[in-house]
Amino acid sequence: MPHSATSPPPRAPRRPVRRPTALLDTRYQVETPEGIDLLLRPAGLVSRALAFSIDLLIRGLLLLVTYVVLGLLGKFGMGLATILLFLVTWWYMVLFEVLNQGRSPGKQMLGLRVVHDDGTPVGWAASLTRNLLRFVDILPFGYTLGILSCLNHPAFKRLGDIAAGTLVVYRDTLPAQPSLPQAEPLVAPFALDLAEQRALLGFAERGASLSAERRAELAAILAEPLQVPHEQAEQRINGIARGLLGPT
Amino acid sequence: MRLTDASVAIRPRSPWEALDLGVLLARQHAGLLMASWALVSLPIFALLCLLLWDYPGWAVFAFWWLKPAYERLPLHILARALFGDTPSLKQALKALPGLLRPQLLASLTWRRFALTRSFDLPVMQLEGLSGQARSQRLVVLGQRDAGAATWLTVVGMHLEMALWLGLVSLFYLLLPAQIELDWSWQSLANAAAGEWLWLEHLSNLLYVLVLIVWEPVYVACGFTLYLNRRTALEAWDIELVFRRLRQRLGGVAYGLLLGCCLLLLQAPTPVMAAEVGNHPLPVTDPIGPEAARLLKQPLSSQAAQDSIEQLLDRPPFEHRETVTRWRFGEDEAAHAGEEPISGLQEWLQKLFKLAELWTGNASLALLFEALLWAALLGLVAVLVWRYRQWLDAFVGRIGLAQRIATPPSRQLFGLEVAPESLPADVAGTVEQLWAEQPRAALGLFYRALLSRLLHDYRLPLHGAHTESEVLRLIQDLDQSELSSFSQTLTLHWENLAYGHRLPPEDLCQTLCHDWRRLLEQGVRT
Predict the structure, then answer these.
(1) What is the C-alpha separation between B476 and A93, in angstroms, rounded?
(2) Which of A196, B224, B273, B458 could disulfide-link B21, Cβ–Cβ 3.0 to 4.6 Å?
(3) In B, which residues are within 8 Å of A21 by CB distance?
(4) How does it sit in the membrane (chain A) (predicted)?
C-alpha cells in the first residue's frame, strides 16, 4: 500500500498523558558555569515584613535616644541629629548589608540575607540601588507597591530588588548531626538513585518524629520490593540506611 | 488524595518557607481565587451597605466580622487545585453553601479572634473534625508551626491596613486638580453624618478591594503551613519517594517476567526456519532519515520529531528575550513653563531663610560650618590621594610642562664648581699662581667661570655639556663681552688642558682685568 506513507495513519486514541510540569517550589536555582546548581531559598513577604519591622523599631529607638540626648545641646544638637537622621535613613540598611554579609539586624534575627541574583554577596552598587528605591516601593503609602510586587514576583522581589538584581534569601544553617536507630548495616538489594537514597536515610533519621504506626505504614510500602514480611521492613530499611551512611 | 498528583514540591520546609509556598500557590491560582472571593464578598458588602447606610462604620465592621465565612471558599479551591483538580469558578461557587454549613457559628463567634485562623481552618474543613478531636489535633499540629501562623495573622492585619492606606492615598493623589474640594481635616472631622457618608462607604469599599488581593494569600499561606506540618509529621516526602521506588522496581520485575515468557515462547520451529529465506533484506531507505517511520504505532516518527522540536524550542535549548525600551515620541511638546523657575526661586528663598536661621547662632554655626568644610576638604584630599596615580598619568599631561628645579650640580667635567670651593678673590689667586702653576691658575679660572655661570647667570649646565656647548649657551645670554671673555678663556684652557701648550704671559693681565670687570662687579652689583 504505497499511499499509506503519504497520508497520516489514523492515530490510536491516546490517553491524556500527564505532562511532567515543574512542581511549584520555593527554591531558586542558579546554575554556575561549571554546571553546578546552587539552590537558593528566596524569602517571602511575611518574614521580610517582620525583619523590616524589627529594623524600623531599632532605627526608631536609635533616633529617639539621640534626639533626646542631642536635644540638650540646643540648635547645634539638632543639627547633628539631622545629620544622624540622614545617615540612619539612607545608610543603615546599606552599611549593614554590605559590611555584615547582607544582613541588617532584623534580617539576622529572621535568618535572612541579601545576595545578588547569582548568589554572590551583595555589593555597594546593588545595595544602594535597592535601598534608594525603597522610596518607589513606599508609594503611594506604606509600601503598597512593594507589597504588591513582592506578592506577585516568583522570587518575592520588591521593585528595588528587581532594579538592583538582588534577592533576599534564607541563610543556610548547619544541619544537626542526625542520629540513626541501631541496625545491622546492609547493602541495598537494588540500585538506588540519589533521591531514593536520601529518602531511605530520611526515614531512618526522622523516625523519632514519626509515630510507630506511621513508620510501619511507610516501611510496608517497600516490603514487597525488599522481599521481607511487613513487620521486618522497618528494620531492613534502617539497616540499608546504616549501610548507605557508611562507618561513622 | 494521591501524593503523586500533588502540584507542589513536597518536602519539609521551615515555617517561613511554607508561608512563601502559600504565596506562590495563591499566585498560581490568583485569577480563580480573586474572582471567587470578589463574587462572594462584594454582594455581601453591597447588601450590608444598603442595610446600614447611615452607619458606615458598622457596615464595614460586620463585613470584617464575617471574614471566616468567606475564607472557606478559597481553601476549598486550593485543596482541590493542589492535587490537580482545579474547579471552575461555577463549580466553586456551587460548592459554597455546602462549605458554609459545618461549625459556622463557632467560626464566627468564639473562634473569630483565634490568631491561627487560617492554620486551623483546614483541620475543620478538610479533615472534618470537631469538638474534642479537633482541639487535640490542633494541639498536635500547633506544636511547631503555630508561631508562624500567629505571625501570619498579625502581619496580615498590618498589611491590610498598609494596603488600604495606600489605596486611599492613591485615590487622593488621583483627584484632578480642577476639583476644588475643601479638604481641610477640620471640615472632614466636623462633617456630620450625611454629606460625607458616601466617602466613608467608598473608603470601606477600598478595604473590601484590598481583601480581594490579600485574603486568598492569607488562606493559602495557612493551608501550606498546615501541609508543611503534616509533611513533617507524616513524612509525606518519604512516602512519595518510596511509592515511586516500588513502582520502578515493580516495573522492572514485570518487565523481566515478560521477557522470560517471550523467550520461552520462541521455541524454534521448522516452519520459522524455512521462512527465513523469504524475508526481504532490509534495504536502505531512498528518502533518507527524514522519511516518516513507525507509522503503525501510536507514537510515529513524525510525532516524536514534533515533540523533540518543541522541546528544543524551549529553554534551556533556546533563549529568547523581549527587550522593551522607552524612546521619545515624534512630536515633543515644548513645555518650558515658568513653574520650575518660580519653584527654584522659592527654594532659594527657603535656603536664604535657612541661612538667616544659621546666622542667629553664629559661633556654634561657624564651628559647625568649619567642621563641615573640613570634612569636605578632607574628602577631596582623600580622593586626590586615592587617585593620585590616575591624576599623575592623565591630568599632569594636560597641565603646563612643569619646570623641575633641580639643584645646580656641584661638579662639571670633573671640576668642583660649588661657590664655596672657590677662593674669595679669584683673580688675585690666579695672579699669584700664574707664574709657578699656570695649569692650576687657568683651571681655577675656568672653574670659577663655570661656577658663576651656574649660580649667577643660572645657566642650566650639566655634566654632559662640552666646552663648546657651554660657549653656545653663553652666546644665548646676549652679552658680547662676557661671550668674548669666555671664548678666550676656553680657548686657552683647552690648549693647556688637552694640548699642553702654555698660555702667553700677558694673557694673565687681560683675563684678570676682564674677570674683575665682568664677573666680580657686573653681576654682584
Answers:
(1) 70
(2) B224
(3) 7
(4) Multi-pass membrane protein
